[in-house]
Specification:
- The chain is of the alpha/beta class.
- It has a single domain, classed as Response regulator (Rossmann fold).
- Helix content is about 45%, strand content about 20%.
- Strands 2-1-3-4-5 form a five-stranded parallel beta sheet, sandwiched between helices.
- Strand 3, helix 3 and strand 4 form a beta-alpha-beta unit.
- The relative contact order is 0.17.
- The mean pLDDT is about 95.
């Protein structure tokens, strides 16, 4: 059975590229906002891994993940951002809100390694 992962990013080119890179190995579901991501999680209980961009309008990646974790605590969350890790991201890592922080542009090997590691933790 193919593992389902959710990628949330407000830039359509990024969701397209992510789907192309990882759609062969996983069932990739994408969302263009934190709210859309929350809606998808409600309707797709089989999603195990959630990756989110950090900088998004209305609800940034940390806010989205904090909100998602309230209902979906069993999922594994990661941030992918074009910006350097700031104190909010460092705190999210230290308290276990997110498992990994990765930089854009996408590093396929790093992302795949972190997804696989996260799937092992969930089993």
């Amino acid at each position: 059975m193919t593992k389902s992962i959710l990628y949330v990013d407000d830039e359509p080119i990024n969701t397209f590229l992510f789907s192309k890179m990882f759609g062969v190995s996983y069932h990739v579901i994408t969302a263009n906002s934190g709210q859309e991501g929350l809606d998808i999680l409600m309707n797709n209980p089989d999603v195990k891994i959630v990756l989110s961009d950090m900088k998004m309008p209305k609800m940034d990646g940390i806010e989205f993940i904090k909100t998602a974790r309230e209902t979906f605590s069993e999922k594994n969350y990661m941030i992918i951002s074009g910006f350097m890790a700031d104190s909010r991201i460092e705190e999210a890592l230290s308290i276990g809100l997110i498992s990994y922080y990765m930089n854009k542009p996408f590093n396929k090997v790093e992302i795949a390694k972190n997804i696989e590691s996260s799937l092992q933790q969930i089993k």
